[in-house]
Amino acid sequence: MDADDAIDPPPTFRKRATLTSDPRERFSDEWPEAWDAAGDLLDWFESYDAVLDDETPPFEWFGGGTLNASHECLDRHLDERKNRLAIRWEGQLGETRTYTYLDLHREVNEFAAALRERGVGAGDVVTLYLPVVPELVVGMLACARLGAPHNVVSAGFSADALATRMERADSCFLVTCDGYYRRGDAVNQKRRADNARLAIDHDLEATVIVERLGDAQLGANQYEYSQLLAANAGCEVEPVARDSTETLFLIYTSGTTGEPKSVTHTTGGYLAHVAWTARNVLDITSTDTYWCTADIGWITGHSYIVYGPLSLGTTTMLYEGTADHLRKDRLFSIIERNAVDVLYTAPTAIRSFMKWGEEYPARHDLSSLRLLGTVGKPIDPRAWKWYYTHVGGESCPVVDTWWQTETGAILVSTLPGVDAMKPGSAGPPLPGIDVAVVGPDGSEQPAGERGMLAIRTPWPGMPRELAAATDWGASAAADGEWRYIAGDEAVADDDGYIRVLGRRDDAITVANQRIGIAEIESAVVSVEGVAEAAVVGVDHSTRETAVYAYVNPATQQAADDALHEAVIAAVEEAIGPMASPERVIFTPELPKTRSGKIMRRLLESVANDEDYGDLSALRNPEVVGELRSNDDGIS
Ligand code: WTA
Fold first, then answer.
1. What is the Cα–Cα distance from 306 to 108, expressed in whole angstroms?
2. Where does the record place the Acetyl-coenzyme A synthetase N-terminal domain (predicted)?
3. Residue nearest ligand 1's atom 6 by CA
4. Averaged pLDDT, 341-357
């Protein structure tokens, strides 16, 4: 099968798909009013005046409407399915817990009451620094209930990274845990949180500690989660009515300057877009058990572990561990034991499964699966086909969904019961979404020609920064035309299917986190003995992107094991272990352009063992030979 082969949706799937006819024409004829279909999936307190007001920025989706995300995900389901499972959780060590909608509703209310008692009100930013445990979902929905934007920082981030994200968000409330297990080892999360607190300029009003390991020593203004719940047992908190355009949460992503940048998602537009895509792209229904393997701290987890599935009344599966912890068929065993209907994972995971071998999925009954999804990176046709065959048994459609932190929800994908699939290609833009591949002058590229992905009309899940459209630098409002350049290079085919080639800005995805290269480089050059450094992402064929750091030491003598270790330690301290360089390569010189800029593209080619093409822009071409010969030497 090559990339051009189109595969029709499996007939068994098609028969029961949520969407069986293509709504694209209606969405384009009646744009933007057709997005009403997304607004209709929510239970508004006050209905909206118009679907979209795009007269002048900031654009408003569902303006005039009021709602509450916690009500959408919990209260409105109680009549029909209070005793259905909202969450099935499996921990790193194999322990399990379940929450019905009623259980989750109760705990969210009690925790919201506790937060309110500690001073959290509408508009206060609450930072949640937790692994994938049910309490993280409780925390998010409790914040939403109070109208307090949440700011989730993945548990793997370092104390410094947490401090930066809390300080930027002016957040005085923190919910964390005493510790957790990662690959069987206990991580002392409380110590990290305490270190972060010391590094933050402002005082924290309250820190809540979820007891995972059971050994928390409480300091001033620190409270145990279970005690707070006990003190608020049975309390109910009225969900606060939020305007559609008010903030539901902040989330940090990489910035091109190396500083993390926050994106602000709205309540109405975001939820409507997420619910519509969860229903029509991932085909989730209220009777499904659905599993997205991402970290909740990533946008994928916000949209498609928490808000999408819960707003549809689904059972969402949470798994705290790593795909291969203890056994290489862990993921398949979870699917079988929980009879998972829909699986959403990342190409990097699929490539690992492929490397381990088809015997692992073959050991399990995976016939409960109905649909497979992928997100986060381009998926090559070989991995796509492996997923389709060995996990989906050729009876589940695969949706290759393209989107970003900044888009909030899926923008490009096939509709699983409607569109033919082309392995390696994400598919056409979704109904009502204008995504195109554009050339340097902003005009649409002919089919087959590379260009940058641009979004040319507003979409419901757009964040506040883009809705305001003035504060997004060159990305928005270029030459008077509203447009957002997403940073990905892509090519469209004759049928309008988009193949995403990868990011063209300076960000890499490691361990499901998009991280700015400049952020890693600034940690490396902070080490004494480092004169200059360049960091690149290297795609191994089977595993995650690996970080390689090319380091020019201040003196040749400085290039020793101690410096090597110091570089790794600096990155782990500034960002976290997931960004830790797999290799540190000392070089007497870095390749530079005549204007003195480090040519990272060239290092990337060397590291990935690719052809490095034209070197005419280089001031010091001789360095290339040296790097090549070094490449399997000092590291
Ligand atoms: C990449 C993740 C190819 C892309 C939801 C994008 C993809 C970045 C795909 C956003 C896909 C995401 N095919 N590339 N299906 N999905 N990407 O913000 O480079 O963590 O710009 O959001 O991931 O990463 P982020």
1. 13
2. 32-73
3. 404
4. 91
CB 553 within 8 A of CB 562: no
| pTM as predicted | 0.89
Of 251, 268, 285, the domain-final residue:
268
Looking at this protein, which amino acid is placed at residue 242? R
Q: Which of 452, 437, 430 is nearest to 494 (CA)?
A: 437
The mean pLDDT value for 115-123 works out to 97
Which H helix or E strand runs over 383? helix 381-386
Q: Whose CA is nearest to atom 20 of ligand 1?
A: 514
**pLDDT one-digit tens code per residue, 387-423:** 999 999 999 999 999 999 999 999 999 999 999 999 9
Specify whether the CB–CB gap between 426 and 402 falls below 8 A.
Answer: yes
| Cα 298 to middle of ligand 1, angstroms | 11
**Cα 571 to Cα 526: distance, rounded to the nearest angstrom:** 10
| ipTM score for this prediction | 1.00
Separation of CA 595 and ligand 1 centre (Å): 32
The token duo for 481 is 């035309």
Contact 463, 265 (CB under 8 A): yes
Q: Say which CATH number the domain at 513 has.
A: 3.30.300.30
Which residues have CB under 6 Å of ligand 1? 253, 298-300, 375-378, 400-405, 426, 486-488, 500, 503, 509, 514
Residue pLDDT, tens place only, 42-72: 999 999 999 999 888 889 999 999 999 999 9
Confirm whether 367 is domain-assigned: no
Domain count of the fold of the chain = 2
Using most ligand atoms within 8 A of CB, pick from 425, 505, 514, 578 the residue to mutate for ligand 1.
Answer: 514
